[in-house]
């Protein structure tokens, strides 16, 4: 994967216009065609987006600092004329340092984490129906899962799994819920156990989410292994992006 992205001034201006909605309809159509076919351009758009967010945040901080300075009583301000004359320079330098810090902050995310964020979508889940008591608890948790309240879903599902550890459907959705909730190691534990069991229920889906979990942890060797094992279009697309 490419770790360094070089953006020319012309590219920056064009991407900025795209993000700000300033392209003409024809320009927008052409840009979106290029964006669809060029993963490198997509990465550049993300970089410019992070930088623009940083600029906006730094500008807001500068305005806030100015507001607080205006609240200071005049009798407490006893700076010499030479110090006041240097104030604009200090302000510009402070904004520059803030911008640099924000740019570095927004770029601390690894390429693997960016790919994970780009491609990870939780399994849509199962239709919620009524049934026995245990089934009701499962589908009750499924409602929370579909609402992206993964913690509540896990709280409802884990006791059910303790009672029935061979329930592949339950273990699969628990693994995906852990991954969606940011608990990568627990997701790997459940999904690997499921993939190693017989029969291999949800084989392709389980392998895909295992690959995504290892991708998030920047373990590309394991990520490639499981994504290759998963015979899904989503896995193939992630593999293409990893190798670009």
Structure description:
By secondary structure, the chain is mainly alpha-helical. It folds into 2 domains: 9-70; 113-243, Serine Threonine Protein Phosphatase 5, Tetratricopeptide repeat. It is 74% helix and 0% strand. It contains 12 helices and no strands. The chain has helices spanning 9-20, 25-37, 39-71, 81-106, 111-119, 133-146, 150-163, 168-180, 184-195, 203-216, 220-229, 233-243. The longest helix is centred in the first third of the chain and has 33 residues, at 39-71. The chain starts with 8 loop residues before the first helix and ends with a helix. Residues 74-82 have low confidence and may be disordered.
Tell me the series of helices and strands, N- to C-terminal. HHHHHHHHHHHH
How far the N terminus sits from the C terminus, by CA atoms, comes to 5 Å
State the helicity in percent bands: over 70%
Mean pLDDT: 81
Which CATH class of the largest domain? Answer: Mainly Alpha
At the fourth level of CATH, the homologous superfamily of the largest domain is Tetratricopeptide repeat domain
Fold-level CATH name of the largest domain: Serine Threonine Protein Phosphatase 5, Tetratricopeptide repeat
Structural class: mainly alpha
Gyration radius from CA atoms, angstroms:
25 Å
How many DSSP E strands? 0
Largest beta-sheet characterization: none
Total count of helical runs of at least 4 residues: 12
What is the approximate shape? elongated
Number of domains: 2
Which blocks of ≥5 consecutive residues have pLDDT under 50?
Answer: 74-82
Keywords: Membrane, TPR repeat, Transmembrane, Transmembrane helix
InterPro entries: TPR-like_helical_dom_sf, TPR_rpt
Pfam family, one: TPR_8
């Amino acid at each position: 994967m490419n770790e360094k992205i070089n953006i020319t001034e012309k590219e920056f201006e064009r991407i900025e216009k795209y993000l700000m909605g300033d392209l003409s309809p024809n320009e927008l159509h052409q840009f979106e065609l290029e964006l669809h076919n060029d993963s490198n351009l997509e990465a550049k758009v993300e970089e410019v987006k992070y930088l623009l967010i940083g600029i906006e945040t730094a500008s807001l901080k500068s305005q806030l600092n100015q507001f607080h300075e205006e609240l200071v009583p005049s009798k407490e301000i006893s700076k010499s004329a030479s110090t006041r004359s240097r104030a604009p320079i200090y302000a510009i330098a402070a904004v520059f340092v803030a911008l640099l810090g924000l740019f570095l902050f927004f770029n601390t995310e690894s390429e693997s984490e960016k790919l994970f964020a780009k491609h990870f979508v939780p399994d849509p889940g199962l239709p919620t129906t009524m049934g026995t008591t245990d089934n009701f608890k499962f589908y009750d948790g499924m409602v929370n899962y579909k609402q992206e309240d993964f913690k509540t879903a896990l709280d409802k599902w884990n006791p059910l799994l303790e009672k029935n550890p061979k329930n592949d459907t339950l273990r699969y959705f628990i693994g995906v819920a852990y991954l969606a909730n940011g608990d990568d190691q627990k997701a790997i534990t459940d999904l690997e156990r499921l993939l190693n069991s017989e029969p291999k229920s949800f084989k392709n889906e389980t392998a895909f989410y295992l690959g995504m979990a290892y991708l998030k942890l920047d373990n590309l060797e394991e990520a490639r292994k499981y994504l290759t094992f998963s015979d899904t279009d989503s896995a193939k697309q992630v593999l293409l992006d990893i190798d670009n």
